[in-house]
Amino acid sequence: MASGTLDDRGVVTACPSCGQKNRQAYDRLGAASRCGHCKRDLPSPGAPIEIQRSADFDRLVAASSLPVAVDYWAPWCGPCRMVAPELEKVAARQAGRLVIVKVNTDALSDLGERFAIRSIPTLAVFAGGREIARTAGARPADEIEAFITKAVSDARPM
Questions:
Q1: What are the C-alpha distances in Å from 142 to residues 48, 87, 91, 149?
Q2: Domain locations in the chain as residue ranges
Q3: Could you report the per-residue pLDDT of 99-150, keeping only the tens digit for each?
Q4: Which of 18, 35, 38, 77 is catalytic?
Q5: pTM for the whole thing?
Q6: Is 80 considered catalytic here?
Q7: CATH superfamily of domain region 46-155
């Protein structure tokens, strides 16, 4: 499962073959890419990515070629800890079709305030730079996937 960190231009992941760090540009996240060192195919992010800075969140949401599912959570929240492994399953199954990120609302309270997060866990889906759906509460992976799939299909222009 490839996960990574965010920088100004994309998701930085280590190649599973040689360990070299590679950047997958936000606007090309769903496209095939190769390691700059060993030239092997790089997997799409297949695990939730922890957001460290609000600016990284803003760049990802604005430029991502894939829908972004955002898990707003906090370390002290029991239901948040229960949903974490479910989100890992979704991220692994949907790698290359969506990106899942985690926003710790204690560490990045400005994002919680900006998006009016009133309860956690809250899952929001962004596409085309805007929020298209939101739900609160813990649920199993299959229900999370169904919610995201419906949100994305409802948001597509006819």
A1: 16, 10, 12, 11
A2: 46-155
A3: 999 999 999 999 999 999 999 999 999 999 999 999 999 999 999 999 999 9
A4: 77
A5: 0.90
A6: yes
A7: Glutaredoxin (3.40.30.10)
